[in-house]
Amino acid sequence: MLRLEVVSRESTGRGPARRMRRQGIVPGIVYGGGQAAQTIAIEGRLLERQLAGDAIYGHAIMLQLDAHTQQMVMLRDVMRHPVKGLAMHVDFQRVDVNVAVRMRVPLRFVGVEANPGVRRGGVVVHYLTDVEVLAPLSNPPEHIVVDLAALDIGDSVHLSQLALPEGVRLAQAVVDKEHDQPVVGILPPKGGAAAEGEEAGAEA
Asked: 25 pLDDT exceeds 60?
């Protein structure tokens, strides 16, 4: 689990915030959980390093506040400089690790090398690269595996066919075929039908 060290701050407003940013410090806030909002500050280089990775997004974060208080949070918003792109303000929300929360989880596609359709020239088309799920913060999935090894040309995998980890479910239930969105499919090679027709004609 990612841990971030932050400090509480008393001064608020645009003036103090600008002074903090000039010193390489990013102001922020922690809210929710039935408690009063807490204004915080975090070292800018540390924050940018974490924002460049994946661990800070959609997962529980342990905030170490003033070296003596720990709070479980999730990143909710980052305000960036319109030109430089650097973080100017960050919002964290307190969470209960035993409660399922919405998060987007990337899909990891495996088995392409063994796919019979691909071996015959089929083309893999990804309709989705991630899905929104409800998952407990105590054990959030890093990814969801989609196995393509058994697919042939014309086959596809839909949302209802995803192998979700224990305790994880789709944020939007698949109630009928109309909502059962395709995730990935194997399409015929471009011009494949015409090529097959020419081959059949040549054999005749």
From this structure: yes
What mean pLDDT comes out for the span 44-50?
89
Q: Which CATH number goes with the domain that contains 128? A: 2.170.120.20
Where are the extended beta strands (E) located within 19-86? 25-32, 35-43, 61-65, 69-80
Q: How many DSSP H helices and E strands does the chain contain?
A: 4, 13
pTM score, two decimals?
0.58
| Structure letter (DSSP) for residue 127 | S
202 occurs within a structural domain: no
**In this structure, is residue 89 part of a structural domain?**
yes
The one-letter amino acid at 3: R
Return the ∠ at Cα 28 (arms to 23 and 32), rounded to 5°: 165
* Cα dihedral 172, 174, 176, 180 sign: positive
| Radius of gyration in angstroms for the set of CA atoms belonging to the chain, rounded to a whole number | 24
